[in-house]
Amino acid sequence: MLKAHPEMDELRNLLAQSVAFPPKGLRGDWEEAIDILQPLVRNETADPATRLQALALAAILRYESGHDVEYHQLQQTFDQVAEAIRPDEWDFVTNLRQDFPHIFPATRIECAAAPSPAEKRRSPIQDYSTAAQVFMQRNSLIAGAVY
Fold it and tell me: Are 105 and 114 in contact (CB under 8 A)?
C-alpha cells in the first residue's frame, strides 16, 4: 500500500512504530522498521515534522543496535530538520531530548540543558514502551486514542 501511496508519510511512521515497538514493551523487527522509514528519511521535501519523527525513530533504532555511523548521520539530520519545524512541534523534540538525552543531546542552541558526560554513555532501552509512547503522543492520526 505504501508503494502505491508514497504520500502517506504519517501512515509510514505509524507502521514503522508498530513494527519496531510491538505491544507490551517488546523489541520488534528493527531492520524492517528502518526499511519502512527509509523513503521518508531520505525525502528532503517531506513535511518537516513528519520527517523529523521518522528520523528520530530511525536514530533510536540505529543507536540501540550499535550502528554508530548511521546513528550519527541520522542524529545530525534530525538536528537540522528540528531547526526548521514550527514552534508548536517543539514538544516532540523536547520530549525526545528529555527521555533520551544519550541519543538526542542538546544542540549548541540548547547548551544550557546539555546532558552531563555520564548521561551521554550508551544506556540501552530496557522497556521499549517508553520509546513507543513518545512517538504515539506525537502522531496526529491517533492523538485521541487511549493507551
Answer: yes
Global pTM value: 0.76
Question: First vs last Cα of the chain: how many Å apart?
Answer: 26
Residue 3 lies in a domain: no
* Number of domains within the chain: 1
Q: Which domain holds residue 122?
A: 9-142
Q: How far apart are CA 57 and CA 53, in angstroms?
A: 6
**Which tens digit of pLDDT belongs to each residue from 80-110?**
999 888 888 888 888 888 888 888 888 755 5
Burial class (CB in 10 A: 0-12, 13-18, 19+), 85: middle
Per DSSP, 26 falls in state -
In a domain, 134, yes or no: yes
Residues in the chain: 147
Looking at the domain assignment, is residue 1 inside a domain?
Answer: no
Quick check: 104 and 112 in contact, CB under 8 A?
no
Alpha-carbon distance 75 to 52, whole Å? 10
- Please state, in angstroms and rounded to a whole number, the distance separating the CA atoms of residues 80 and 137: 22
